[in-house]
Amino acid sequence: MENQYDLIIIGAGPGGYPAAAKAADNGLKVAVIEKNELGGVCLNKGCIPTKALLHAADVYKETISCSSLGLSALNPQFDPLLIHARKNAMIQRLRSGIEQLFKSKKIALYRGYAKVLDSGLVEVTDNEGKTEKLSCDKILIACGAAPAMPPINGIDLPFVNTSDTLLTTDSAMPKQIVIIGGGVIGMEFAGVYNAFGCQVTVIEALDRILPTLDEEISSTMSMIMKKRGVKLFCSSSVIKITDKPEKQVIFSNKKGEASVPCDMVLVATGRKADATNIFADDLPIKLNRGAIVVNENFATNIEGVYAIGDAVYGSIQLAHASTAQGLNIIDQFLDKPATLTLSLVPACVYSSPEIASVGLTEAQAKAQGIPVAVGKSYFTANGKALITEEDRSFIKLIYHAETDVLLGAQLICARATDMISEFTQAIACGLTKKQMASVIRPHPTYNETVHDAIEAVK
User: Fold this and answer.
1) What does the domain layout of the chain look like in residue ranges?
2) What radius of gyration, in Å, describes the C-alpha atoms of the chain?
3) Among residues 220, 219, 249, 218, which one has the least CA distance to residue 236?
4) Letter string b/e over residues 98-122, b meaning 16 or more CB atoms within 10 A of that residue's CB
5) How many CB atoms lie within 10 A of CB 248?
6) Are strands 354-359 and 406-413 parallel, antiparallel or unpaired?
7) CATH number of 353-455
8) Is 443 annotated as catalytic?
9) What span, in angstroms and rounded, lies between the C-alpha atoms of 340 and 320?
10) Which one of 156, 166, 319, 439 has the lowest number of neighbouring Cβ atoms within 10 Å?
11) Residue from 84, 320, 400, 443 carrying the catalytic annotation
């Protein structure tokens, strides 16, 4: 039957489209349903557009400070419209690539809203309201999440944005921006706007920025951002956002109540799953605060219905985690061993300097009663870092004190997001300090400091 499939995937983001491609490569008849643009949040409103802006910001920052390199650039300027145009062109190119991928692998693409009616039955409604029912053996939901909007008075004012709205518009560069939330999204945007000369203020409810990362990484980035002129207010709660008598954010902390004037506000308080509209009203799907509850095999309580990625309750909201889950679940459907180790997911922050971590932090290991030996090395004597004039940077390695096996790694340095894979592989393979130290790392590279960190283990 034309509308009968082996697998229907809801969502064409980083969880959905790689899984669809792998399933099709293994002979399954696959359909993908997507209500928005191909590529999901990551491609259209997240990973790719933010990194495009960050790259432009880094190049501009290097240009205006290039005199220390013996170079000169007369009156360097930036054009927000052209920066966004380049970003949009890259997004469109990657979208087209996914569409071509689907065509080449004969994956059926339905553009519209999906609703799971029952096991093996999905209804699609297109933009004109036309409905169509599709049947299948298995359903995989990879519908992602949306920005979380805290209950703040004035949050609906027109100058208040989420990362979604900022990345899908060609807005002019503000002179003053207040970012609510000092997590990964907030600090990446803080770096962008600061590099372009905007006065940036970050308001974070917890006692430090990047609160999910190693505390020393957090304090180092805090010091760097303050040195660049970014104002950080931690342990602070936003009271309201107002445009009378001027645009401003009013907040409070232990020092009392204060206000910050602004042209723009960015709400960067994380993302929240809301899968309530994916299922028919009479389908008894198990949800927790709008997120889908699954077991260790990503199966829901409805037979033949599975979910991965940001839509899942308790998930790690990272694109590469979603991709890995999607690829592994196809292995599961094909009765093959899992391809990827899901217990090790590297976390990356594309700030300047970059931040990356994997495995346990020193505090986490100690909390679990694991004896640890820590090695840390700064980049102050690294030739490559001196050439490129890097900020304060270091690598921190956590080993088991008795077995010498690597447990975790935390990096704040240039190219940290590229370097982290070495440590992910080392942890996955159970490598010891001696084994890691036996590798020759080329000179001059940032990676040379890895050897120094290993040798510094105490």
Assistant:
1) 4-145+273-333, 160-269, 353-455
2) 24
3) 249
4) bbebbeeeebbbbebbbbbbbebbb
5) 20
6) antiparallel
7) 3.30.390.30
8) yes
9) 11
10) 156
11) 443
Query: Which residue is listed with tokens 């976390």?
Result: 347
**Contact status, residue 288 vs residue 270, Cβ threshold 8 Å:** no
DSSP 11-50: --STTHHHHHHHHHHTT--EEEEESS-TTHHHHHHSHHHH
- For tokens 């971590």, the residue is 357
Structure tokens at 434: 């001696």
Q: For residues 36 and 59, what is the distance between their CA atoms, to the nearest angstrom?
A: 32
* Tens digit of each residue's pLDDT, the chain (458 residues): 579 999 999 999 999 999 999 999 999 999 999 999 999 999 999 899 999 999 999 999 999 999 999 999 989 999 999 999 999 999 999 999 999 999 999 999 999 999 999 999 999 999 889 999 999 999 999 999 999 999 999 999 999 999 888 887 776 789 999 999 999 999 999 999 999 999 999 999 999 999 999 999 999 999 999 999 999 999 999 999 999 999 999 999 999 999 999 999 999 999 999 888 999 999 999 999 999 999 999 999 999 999 999 999 999 999 999 999 999 999 999 999 999 999 999 999 999 999 999 999 999 999 999 999 999 999 999 999 999 999 999 999 999 999 999 999 999 999 999 999 999 999 999 999 999 999 999 999 999 999 999 999 98
DSSP state of 172: P
CATH number for the region 4-145+273-333 comes to 3.50.50.60
Whole-number Å distance between alpha carbons of 112 and 233: 42
Nearest to 417 by CA among 340, 348, 367: 348
> How far apart, in Å, are the Cα atoms of 212 and each of 66, 289, 360, 384, 419?
34, 21, 12, 29, 20
Q: Quote the pTM value.
A: 0.94
- Helices 16-25, 80-104: crossing angle, 10 deg rounding: 30
| Fold match, 4-145+273-333 / 353-455 | no
